[in-house]
Amino acid sequence: MTTSVARDSQFGTLYVVATPIGNLDDISARALAILRDVALIAAEDTRHSARLMQHFGISTPLAACHEHNEREQGGRFLARLQAGEDVALISDAGTPLISDPGFHLVRQARAAGMAVVPVPGACALIAGLSAAGLPSDRFIFEGFLPAKTAARRARLEQVKEEPRTLIFYEAPHRILECVEDMHAVFGDERQAVLARELTKTFETIKGLPLVELREWIAADSNQQRGECVVLVAGWQAPEGEEAVSAEALRVLDLLLGELPLKRAAALAAEITGVRKNLLYQVALERQKKN
Questions:
Q1: For residue 168, which phi and psi values (nearest 5 degrees)?
Q2: How far apart are CA 67 and CA 69, in angstroms?
Q3: Quick one: which of 150, 146, 170, 148 has its CA closest to 232?
Q4: pLDDT at position 253
């Protein structure tokens, strides 16, 4: 088969094939060629993927590989690979293993010395990030948050001071309460983007401070439908007076009333433990205001 990678092994190759997340034209020519040529396609939902195969006239047999059977059924796919046959792994949409099944099969195949070849394509988190207008040089993907409010807020607290852009997936029936919890944990002004139904007819990419995004979603039930990616700007360390506690500012003000600026900042630093240079800058700012 012309789409195979060169290999010395007698085993077949496991291809990890990305499929469209909405617009069917986003599938690559390479992905179509591989799906036609492999002996078997391991699919998250064979009924769902059958429609994709029918659309492109692909008759390759499908077999289920989902979160409930992946560990037990992995052996059947490995047996085909051991027999020298190529297998393609696909999910319902996007790139397999990204909040989708496939990890166990890929790990088993690699452990057995078989070639695992990525066939890249659509991925909702990358599509959302590319159009969100948030910093994209460093980001973290948190997948789906816990379904229950307490657990969800606890997870959000863990990343509250994460400086990288945060990316989450969320189910439509939980999107409003999810954004409400983000607002409660991250605050009013943290910038966030809802990227919904990407590449589909009703695609929406809306960016607002969390307090406004929550209100916007609550006011429009249409925004509580479809596949959702939520992106949140990373935490930024406060600067100037915002970086100093109210108690430290109180001490600084008392000392400024009695001592020269430099001495007041140095003594306030000794008393409060706040960096002297920071208190000196804050003292300068406060003197300019007075």
A1: -130, 150
A2: 6
A3: 170
A4: 82
Cα-to-chain-centroid distance, residue 191: 16
112 three-class SS: coil
Q: For residue 109, what are its two tokens?
A: 């195949």
The residues pairing with 144 across neighbouring beta strands, listed in sequence order, are 169
d(CA 177, CA 168): 14
Q: Of the candidates 51, 33, 50, 108, which has an alpha carbon nearest to the alpha carbon of residue 77?
A: 108
| pTM confidence score | 0.80
**In sequence order, which residues have a C-beta less than 8 Å from that of residue 96 and are 6 or more positions away?**
16, 17, 18, 44, 89, 90, 102
Q: What is the token pair recorded at 227? A: 């596949």
Q: Are 74 and 104 in contact, with CB atoms under 8 Å apart? A: yes
In order along the chain (290 residues), what is the average pLDDT of each group of 10 residues? 54 97 97 98 95 97 83 81 96 94 93 96 98 97 97 96 96 97 95 97 97 97 95 80 74 84 85 82 77
Buried b (16+ CB within 10 A) or exposed e, 186-213: beeebbbbbbbbbbeeeebbbbebbbbb
Closest by Cα among 283, 285, 254, 286 to 271:
254
**Identity of residue 278:** L
